[in-house]
Amino acid sequence: MSTTTTGAAATELLTRAEEMVPVLRERAGEAESLRRLPEETIADYRAAGFFTAMVPADRGGSALSLQEFADLIRVLSRGDASAGWIAAFLISHSTLLYRYGAAAQSEFFAEKPYGLTVAASAPPGKAEPADGGYRLSGRWRFGSGAMHAEWATLSAMSPEGPLSVTVPMTELEIIDTWHVPGMKATGSNDLAADNVFVPAHRTAPFATFASGANDGAALTSYPLIGYPMNRTLNLIHSAVAIGTADAALELFAQGLGKRVRMQTQQRVIDEPITRQTYGKAWDLVQVAALQMQDSLAHTDRVYGAHAAAPASLADRARINLGLTGSGQKAFQAVDLVARASGASIYRTGDHLDRIVRDTQVMRNHAAIDFETMASVAGGALLGAGIGDYADPMF
């Protein structure tokens, strides 16, 4: 696997991630049984410095760029998709806390410069005005990382409009709903709040919070806090998908030398069709990585400090299509090697079996839905707009 990281901090984190790949792969079965990551893995992430990877440098963090973050998550996902997924969210969601103002940040970071945070937006809860803040009630789905989180950043509707609100996990209920065939160890359970008080400083109008004009952007020199929220978070799904495809290629190659075609007694690795399949899958992963790299580089061009003009719909379409398209190609690569691997991979405990199940679940995530994005982004590129697609999410 090739990466594009250049910073010293990023290189060190990437080295530590490479060391964890066999550990994560070894723990993957246990993680599936637990339906969450083992606490040893969370402790290893903390010791490796991963949780400060996207913390501003002036707060003691590594302040990774988008591409450096994607490289890190790609490597961890090569060990296990669920482990990469949870690492990605717990690492990047600290940037959500840094989008709030100084009063909230003094609470979030009273003891350390990061906060392990779960984020859930659908369906939005209800925020009723109260003295000094709001009363929050609701139930949110797909709380990836909730089993390890200290804070929860949630969406809610108030009389003034949509809000982003953040509450301690101790004030929420985790509802055990995550019974799924793949990505089992993400523990993406439902979250529920019943009349929880949220002080005003831990709330923000969603449109402002999700934009580059959020309250925290002026409090730090870390550029990504001044990017729209979806530009940081939406890359996660493709980075995990590509890392998972890396693992599929690696495991396929390792297993080939042991396989003999029953009908011909020929080594499978000697069959031209097998070699062609691997070549096609390898090519797909390379193209996926380059497409993601282009999207992230374009994100920096149109949202970075030296951007010449606000991002156009065409800019946003290019970014979104690049990310969802790269994830789709990674899934196609997994499909190719899985079909060429024989029935034996579906024996319980085989890593390729887990990868197949993980990718089947991942590809249904809205953030990596290429068919929908192709339709919306195609309209933007044709000058027809994005219709009723939510603008802050495009």
TrEMBL record:
Domain Acyl-CoA dehydrogenase/oxidase N-terminal: 25-107
Keywords: Oxidoreductase
Single GO cellular component term: cytoplasm
GO terms for MF: acyl-CoA dehydrogenase activity; flavin adenine dinucleotide binding; oxidoreductase activity, acting on paired donors, with incorporation or reduction of molecular oxygen, reduced flavin or flavoprotein as one donor, and incorporation of one atom of oxygen
Domain of life: Bacteria
Pfam families in the record: Acyl-CoA_dh_2 (PF08028), Acyl-CoA_dh_N (PF02771)
GO biological process, one term: fatty acid beta-oxidation using acyl-CoA dehydrogenase
Domain Acyl-CoA dehydrogenase C-terminal: from-to ranges: 235-369
Similarity field: Belongs to the HpaH/HsaA monooxygenase family.
PANTHER family (UniProt xref): FLAVIN-DEPENDENT MONOOXYGENASE, OXYGENASE SUBUNIT HSAA, MEDIUM-CHAIN SPECIFIC ACYL-COA DEHYDROGENASE, MITOCHONDRIAL-RELATED
Name of the protein: Acyl-CoA dehydrogenase family protein
Organism: Arthrobacter caoxuetaonis
Organism lineage: Bacteria, Bacillati, Actinomycetota, Actinomycetes, Micrococcales
